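Run folding on both entries below.
>entry_1
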Amino acid sequence: MPVIDTRIGGEDIIWEESAGETIKPTSTIRSRTVYAGERIDAMCALVVACLLAAEGCAPPHDGNVSNHFDGKRFHNVKPVDHSFGRFLKWTSSRTPGRWRDWTDAEPGPAPPERVGRGDLRVTFVNHATVLVQMDGLNILTDPIWSDRCSPFAWVGPRRRRPPGIRFEDLPPIDVVLISHDHYDHLDVPTLERLDSEHQPRFLAGLGNAAFLNRNGIDRADQLDWWQTATLSETVRLHCVPAQHWSGRGVGDRNQTLWCGFVIEGPAGVVYFAGDTGFGPHFAQIRDRFGPPRLALLPIGAFMPRWFMSPFHISPAEAVRVHGILGAGTSVAIHFGTFPLADDDEDEPVALLTRALEEADESRPNFWVLDFGEGRD
């Protein structure tokens, strides 16, 4: 059998492969194969990052100076180095993770049209796209149904499996949450289709409304960290800090705000983390809103740690965050759809499973939903 070498928990492991399926680890090694195709993908990612976006860069935000906005650019509360030089260092020397070329899968069943007051249902679509149904509202996070998360249709990270829910099977969408403007989280073609067919309300961090307006999306509101919006008579939305960065081209870095969201209603508190590194904001969110009934936490695109750790929590850190939040249930997101970093396709779930098994307390209630799977 041919072998694929990968990393689990910092170790290099050989995996046997048969007919495109990963079977089991067989032995450890200290080097790994770099496939020519993966190197091409890495260079394509570099080209995309160096070019201006097809839709154009975000216009500068014109707002009040704060502890995370200097009048021109936004900043993390905890300073992190996300310079373009570090990005170039990574892309020029990276060892991309091993992903299947395509995983064909049947879509999940159509979600219910709505759930009642006090009820809460979560459906994992793909990547950071989750359908949250609570208190009569249908809320969609960072929706992407496109084949690539890129400004171009011909280059950039390509999806490796279909969305778990067909777009045509979505229930009426009332609210769309956008955590930041990176292409895998703010996908203009998907947002335009949602705007046309569902007419939802779009909410994002500061600076993003102007960009959405420029793309014909008029029902867009923007919030600063800790600001609140009313979604219905009983449901409120809070914009909360994240540790990340923004930019869709070389000229607009950190000109729009990145964030997470807390949804608060009779069904309880739901926390959507967006993209984030590990930081003090998790405890701050718990202190303000109490333990969430549901937390949507990213687990993928975390390797190599020297580059990714300021912006993407690892699976083990996601388990720590679950504990800091005191979440009743957490659901894993941001994995298994687009190859964006150097972790392997199956590595986030494998490491999450290990971290849950090694947790000091009884195994945390941390779900890995199948693509298209919904649970009450």
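>entry_2
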Amino acid sequence: MALILLIAAWSVGATRLWHTDVPGSLNVSGLDVTRWFTARQLEQARSYWRFVEVDWALGTLATLVALAILAWRAPRIARGIGLGPIGSGVIVGMLTLVTLWFVALPFSFAQQWWDARHGLAPHDYLAWLAAPWASLSFEAGYALVVIVFVMWLARRLGRGWWLVGAPVFVGLAVLFAFLQGFVAVSGTTAAKPALRARIVRLEQAEGVAVPVRVQKVSGWTKEANAFTSGIGPSTRVVVWDTLLDGRFSRGEVNVVVAHELGHVARKHIWKGLAWVALLAFPAAFLIAEATRSRGGLGRPGAIPLAFLVLTVASLLALPIENAVSRRYEAEADWAALQATRDPASPASLFRSFARTSLEEPSPPTWDYWLLENHPTLAQRIA
């Protein structure tokens, strides 16, 4: 009975989080892409994405193999460290994170080289390598804190650690999201007065007011983007300087900013954290059960196995995760359309993404489910 009640509560929560305010009567399928994109654009995008898809598949396979090897060797490695269970666990955790970074590096480099070859990035690989270090260091530190806490719980509570650990994971995720808002704006600058005046009008239309910052990324990419980060007082919207380099009209820039403000107004990061809360208990239970064969997560040798299980589970959940993300992105598009009242600008913006980012207007079905966390360009135009 308890299990039935939990499943019912989970289903109600998931249903409510799935809901958006995009009218259900809108038909965003069946758009003829040849009306909006030339045959050359379609072929260029398909050619570009074939390499990206293969690179992603090989990188994912390499990650799984590396984790499997680490999971096999970790008990012997941990015994030789001699710093006690938690101290050895920190070393094994650091070894796992560093190994994953080095395994992913060749595939990330290949992606950067491919982008540069297609005019989407400069051939400045040092700038590309240095760009994400602030965020990576923060994420690595967060992961080590989680490892220490979980090992301590597992050693104190035994098999039932996940019952206490799951809600604490949610609390740590909320803290991470809050701090990420400040980390994301490191090295950014304030929007110029002309852009700021347009932002104020969009904020009034959407009923929100958040700092909008500009991040210089042109040293390592030519693609245009913007994102929302943080929760509560740490909420920030960050616009890449490549969006402001003259390739996009004022109306198109307004659409991008309004889209990000739409994420804030619809509380999409908070909803993402609510999904974390829904998934925390089954994920923690799965890890607890999978690591029992290694003596539980209180033993340092079980940490790479926990990473492997979590990675496999994340891959299996990708279609659901992407489906949720696409709904929220569609809702942000709808919010931007309502705020700007300018349907021509988003249509031209999405058409330009096929040129400036080589996005594929209508990707293959498997690509759509596994790799696309935004609606397709065809859906967004529709």
